[in-house]
Amino acid sequence: MHLKDKFEFWKHQRITRRSALFALGYSLVLSSTLFSCSTPENNTQKQAASSTSNTVNTASSSTNKVVRIVRSKQLTALAVLEKQGNLEKRLEFLGYKVEWPEFVAGPQQLEAFNANGLDIALTAESPPVFAQAAGTPLVYLAANSTDGKSISLLVPVNSTVKSVKDLKGKKVAFQKASIGHYLLLKALEKEGLKLTDVQSVYLTPPDANVAFSQGKVDAWFIWEPFVTRNEQKKIGRVLIDGSNGLRDSNNFFSTTRKFYQENPQVIKVFLEELQKAQVWSKNHPKEIAQLLAPITQLDPPILEKMHSKYDFALEPINEKIITKQQQVADKWYSQGLIPKKVNVRDDFLLPEEYTKITPQEVLAKQ
Questions:
Q1: Angle, alpha carbons 241-247-252 (nearest 5°)
Q2: 246 with 179: CB under 8 angstroms?
């Protein structure tokens, strides 16, 4: 299946109808005048722009611009950022609207980069490496906390599997090139096993959820809220999670090289508001539970317990993080799962560039 066809599939399957319609309009080079002259709201903006300063004129003249940020359906500050609406308010002044398209996992987000269907992604460490190996011109914008406890290896509640060693020869489901894939590799190596010692079953999270609930696989490496949902329904139990040193890498916010070069102010505002959402989320466990209950489909008390699995923190990108990401890339190359050796530094920014876009309180952690 060609990349364009793959993206079209995921877009129709996972992006909301509203987002898909907007993406179609956006792809017509933003030349249509429908949005600029067909609604009273836009007419009002035009009238206001004609009588105000040049700065407001500039913002109003570009109201058709859009930034597409992946929708997070997990217990994350990104989900909080969408629900609170503060980012939309700031970007509206710069002439941007915000869209929140949905994707099933990180690899699909970065495929969308190539098809011009997403501007800012949130993934674990492995999807960017696979994307770099495929030639995707991405940029690592910011590192997020590890949140190792939020990723778990599930087995059925009545499974005889008691340890990772017991998985030898069994079917293990995970999204290819995801954090589940990476942690399974590390967990097996820790026990002296290899990926080839288990039967890898590449499935997207929704498909894996069905296969796991129907007993078609013996284990599943997956993240929240799938873990808690399966525990609640007494379908699965946690064999191990990513804590206690198993997960040693970060999540990353990333964008395309083109979007970074053309929209540095948008990225700066995004990271500033994201940092505010991180701080708020960390300090308001009850409130975030109420806010995200509709998204995660979990009751607030359950979400409060899940809250302890997350650190809610942006981390400054430094040599330590770049070195770790290179180790991840080298690991995948050694497994023969990427076609060429990747130099991850090619898609990290220079220190002075990070200084311009990273919130000061994050830089202070250096």
A1: 115
A2: no
CA atoms within 13 A on the CB side of 20: 12
Both tokens of residue 141?
């914008």
pTM value > 0.85: no
Token digits for 299? 């009751």
Tell the residue number behind the tokens 């899940």, with chain if given.
306
Q: Which residue has the tokens 């995921």?
A: 10
Torsion of CA 8, 11, 13, 18, to 10 degrees: -130
Q: With both helix axes pointing from N to C terminus, report the angle between 3-14 and 17-27 in degrees, rounded to the nearest 10.
A: 140
Residue 76's closest CA among 151, 186, 20?
A: 151
310 phi and psi angles, rounded to 5 deg: -115, 145
69 has which bridge partners? 120
Q: CATH for 148-241?
A: 3.40.190.10
Which three-class secondary structure state does DSSP give residue 180?
helix
Q: Which CATH architecture has domain 3-32+64-146+250-363?
A: 3-Layer(aba) Sandwich (3.40)
- Tell me the β-bridge partners of 123: 252
Query: How many Å apart are CA 344 and CA 325, to the nearest integer?
Result: 7
User: Can you tell me the distance from the alpha carbon of 25 to that of 147, in angstroms, rounded to the nearest whole number?
Assistant: 37
Beta bridge partners of 348: 140
Residue with tokens 């129907």: 214
Write the pLDDT tens digit of every residue in 270-327.
Answer: 999 999 999 999 999 999 999 999 989 899 999 999 999 999 999 999 999 999 999 9
DSSP state of 350: P
Asked if residues 120 and 70 have their Cβ atoms less than 8 Å apart, the reply is yes
* 3-32+64-146+250-363 and 148-241: identical CATH topology: yes
Q: Residue 185: which residues within 8 A CB-CB, separation 6 or more?
A: 195, 331, 335
What token pair was written down for 269? 């505002």
Q: What are phi and psi of 238, to 5 degrees?
A: -80, 125
Nearest-angstrom CA–CA distance, 345 and 366 = 19
Query: Exposed/middle/buried for 236, CB within 10 Å: 0-12, 13-18, 19+?
Result: buried
**pLDDT exceeds cutoff 60 at 218:** yes
